């Protein structure tokens, strides 16, 4: 989204002049005279205010036709957490069951306002809400591992099971006993050259890999929870660790085929389409028509396109390799510029 609110533009421009790293991820600035876009902390010479546009995300700037700055490398660095966020997360992980108040954050030289802004931008919640969810997720993990319910409740700071159950119902919609019977989907945020992504995995395998700003992400997560009978928690397991490693190798040009366990609920037809996607060789493309023909139904082009659009595991299930019959790039949930980048990346590292 292009930012048009004048007070916001004035604040962002001052942050740009000051190279304020706490604003990294809050906006990107596009320079109309050069056609490039940068992050707040860019070291390049600062443009005049009348020569810039501000956008909420990298995707918005790419859609507007701007290309990444070679000085600040926004597609690589805009998604990296700034130092104050890394420090706050380190404090949280060191003592996950202790609440960090705003006054304590200030005593440690951390700005609660900057943390709030960054977490609202990247997680759609405040840092205090993130802390609360982190403690809930830790409790759920302990319950899943077989720890006694009363011990988990008391260790989480609750004086009774009723208070603990009330908190779980408010946040997850299920009691502690119900949570013990449900599955768990762990979710982790990854940094990639194309912007941040969320990877989710059940005990069986990766079930989602999407760019964080995808509009349908909330709907996809709700659908996964329903289909898998599971609760999404901010954590990681062996499947998310493998996905992070292999995705890093892919972006480095060191991997052409993924070897990940997948857990992708869908209709029989959708699963067949997704399987056919994985059979498209690295650095090659297929049309929707060709995909339909490979499935044995040349008339099912639109159905194939819809199933492609329902793919929740980007890159690993490579729907970016499907193009129009005329060779033109067509719809991609991550944006056509990302699709173009992925295809060019694979061409660069193909054998």
Automatic annotation (TrEMBL):
A GO MF label: methylated-DNA-[protein]-cysteine S-methyltransferase activity
Keyword entries, A-Z: Activator, Cytoplasm, DNA damage, DNA repair, Metal-binding, Methyltransferase, Transferase, Zinc
Record's catalysed reaction(s): a 4-O-methyl-thymidine in DNA + L-cysteinyl-[protein] = a thymidine in DNA + S-methyl-L-cysteinyl-[protein]; a 6-O-methyl-2'-deoxyguanosine in DNA + L-cysteinyl-[protein] = S-methyl-L-cysteinyl-[protein] + a 2'-deoxyguanosine in DNA
Record-listed DNA binding positions: 34, 43, 45, 67
Chief place of localization: cytoplasm
Cell wall biogenesis/degradation keyword on record: no
Cofactor or coenzyme needed: Zn(2+)
Ranges of residues in domain HTH araC/xylS-type: 109-182
Active site (record annotation): 38, 319
GO biological process, one term: methylation
Note: This enzyme catalyzes only one turnover and therefore is not strictly catalytic. According to one definition, an enzyme is a biocatalyst that acts repeatedly and over many reaction cycles.
Family, per entry: Belongs to the MGMT family.
HAMAP family, per the entry: OGT
Name this protein carries in UniProt: Methylated-DNA--protein-cysteine methyltransferase
Taxonomic source organism: Idiomarina xiamenensis 10-D-4
């Amino acid at each position: 989204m292009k930012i048009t609110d004048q007070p916001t533009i004035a604040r962002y421009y001052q942050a740009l002049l000051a190279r304020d790293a706490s604003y990294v991820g809050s906006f990107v600035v596009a320079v109309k005279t050069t056609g490039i876009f940068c992050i707040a902390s860019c070291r390049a010479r600062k443009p005049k205010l009348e020569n810039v546009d501000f956008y909420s995300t990298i995707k918005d700037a790419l859609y507007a036709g701007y290309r990444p700055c070679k000085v600040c490398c926004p597609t690589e660095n805009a998604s990296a957490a700034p130092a104050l966020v890394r420090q706050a997360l380190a404090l949280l992980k060191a003592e996950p069951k202790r609440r960090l108040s705003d006054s304590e954050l200030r005593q440690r030289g951390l700005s609660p306002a900057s943390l709030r802004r960054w977490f609202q931008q990247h997680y759609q919640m405040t840092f205090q809400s993130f802390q609360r969810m982190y403690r809930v997720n830790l409790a759920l993990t302990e319950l899943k591992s077989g720890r006694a319910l009363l011990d988990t409740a008391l260790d989480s700071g609750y004086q009774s099971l009723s208070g603990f159950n009330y908190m779980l119902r408010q946040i997850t919609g299920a009691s502690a006993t119900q949570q013990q019977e449900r599955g768990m989907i762990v979710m982790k945020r990854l940094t990639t050259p194309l912007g941040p992504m969320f990877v989710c995995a059940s005990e069986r395998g990766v079930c989602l890999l999407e760019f964080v700003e995808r509009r349908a992400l909330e709907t996809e997560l709700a659908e996964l929870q329903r289909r898998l009978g599971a609760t999404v928690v901010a954590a990681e397991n062996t499947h998310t660790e493998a996905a992070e490693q292999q995705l890093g190798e892919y972006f480095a040009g060191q991997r052409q085929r993924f070897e990940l366990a997948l857990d992708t609920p869908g209709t029989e037809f959708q699963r067949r389409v997704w399987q056919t996607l994985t059979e498209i060789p690295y650095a090659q493309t297929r049309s929707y028509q060709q995909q339909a023909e490979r499935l044995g139904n040349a008339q099912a082009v639109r159905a194939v396109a819809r199933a492609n659009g329902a793919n929740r595991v980007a890159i690993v299930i490579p729907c970016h390799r499907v193009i129009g019959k005329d060779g033109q790039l067509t719809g991609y949930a991550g944006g056509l510029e990302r699709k173009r980048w992925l295809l060019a990346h694979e061409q660069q590292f193909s054998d």
